[in-house]
Write a structure and sequence with these properties.
- This protein is of the alpha/beta class.
- It is 41% helix and 18% strand.
- It has helices spanning 3-18, 49-60, 76-86, 109-114, 133-143, 160-171, 183-193, 202-211, 252-259, 268-283, 289-299, and strands spanning 35-41, 64-70, 89-92, 106-107, 119-123, 126-130, 152-156, 175-179, 196-198, 214-217, 240-243, 263-265.
- Strands 2-1-3-5-6-4 form a six-stranded mixed beta sheet, sandwiched between helices. Strands 9-8-7-10-11-12 form a six-stranded parallel beta sheet, sandwiched between helices.
- Strand 7 (152-156), helix 6 (160-171) and strand 8 (175-179) form a beta-alpha-beta unit.
């Protein structure tokens, strides 16, 4: 190698380290002491994922970094190419969970069933899509002492989150009813997974909730208005209520469920467990769930 080439090579290495966001990771390169991870979505300003995954890396004794990769829709393809070149894996959030599918080389059975990706693993240049939302929901239930098998459940909503929840519950052996403001959407979702659709109001809805063991709010009610509740006052299932909203952690629905003597499960558990399962896919290590949970609570301004 001549002097000019040597100088050029060292200049590239210097610039590489000066960027400060890679921890020296080069995909298929000579230098690779750190693992590059990240989150693709838009917007991402309030995400707690970096705090959660950085805590996981530190607790596991792994060198690496987790970056927010804010990606407008028209930049998704180029962002996926960047991931293919230099990341071990990424999480995917709105609005890209479905849009990213054409850019992947392979998807898991969960993705095939749910139709959405929330985790990508880079296997030597092959991008494999996974969905850890569904098993993350099941793990969060189990951590709260709720076993889904044999339960009668009502799921509120028919969006991507509701789809993952319904899939998880059906796979776990629960009998599921789906309620949505637009009944046609509830019916379409229910038919995919062998569930039942019910109206989101009136006597039939009230009866469905009261007959259920478990109620899951997979709508955004409570997210933008903490004083709002998706169900009529005094209408409760028999055992437990889950609200997948995690900011705020204490929604009106959960506060009133606790007051009624029910098990109340906030959305932080599902967030942490889907992240923990993604971490295990990327690293092959058992996730430090307690450290991730504490970091997520701290990022939300809650006591750990």
């Amino acid at each position: 190698m001549n002097t000019a080439n040597v100088c050029f090579t060292y200049l590239r290495i210097a610039r590489f380290f000066a960027r400060g966001d890679s921890l020296g990771y080069m995909w298929r390169g000579v230098y690779s002491t750190g693992m590059r991870l990240g989150l693709i979505g838009y917007p991402l300003a309030h995400s707690v994922s970096p705090a959660m995954h950085r805590a996981a890396l530190q607790a596991a004794g792994l060198e690496g970094i987790y970056r927010l990769l804010e990606t407008p829709p028209d930049e998704l393809e180029s962002r996926v190419m960047e991931v293919r070149r230099g990341y071990r894996g990424v999480n995917v959030t709105v609005p890209h969970k479905v849009a990213v599918l054409p850019y992947l080389d392979e998807v898991s059975p969960e993705v095939q069933a749910i139709g959405a990706v929330n985790t990508i693993v880079n296997e030597e240049g092959r991008l494999v899509g996974h969905n850890t939302d569904a098993p993350g929901f099941t793990r969060a239930l189990e951590a709260a002492g709720v076993t889904a098998r044999g339960l009668r459940a009502v799921v509120l909503g028919a969006g991507g989150a509701a789809r993952a929840v319904v899939y998880a519950l059906v796979q776990a052996g629960a009998r599921v009813r789906v309620a949505n403001r637009t009944f046609a959407r509830a019916k379409a979702l229910a038919e995919v997974f062998g569930a039942e659709a019910v109206p989101f109001e009136g006597p039939e809805f009230v009866r469905a909730v009261r007959e259920a063991d478990l109620l899951v709010n997979a709508t955004s009610v409570g997210l933008n208005d903490p004083g709002a509740s998706p169900i009529p006052e005094g209408v409760w299932p028999r055992e437990a209520v889950v609200d997948i909203v995690y900011n705020p952690l204490e929604t009106r629905l959960l506060r009133e469920a606790r007051a009624a003597g029910l098990v109340a499960v906030d959305g932080l558990g599902m967030l942490v467990w889907q992240g923990a399962l993604a971490f295990e896919l990327w690293t092959g290590r058992q996730a430090p769930v307690a450290a991730m949970h504490a970091a997520a609570r701290a990022a939300l301004g809650e006591d750990a």
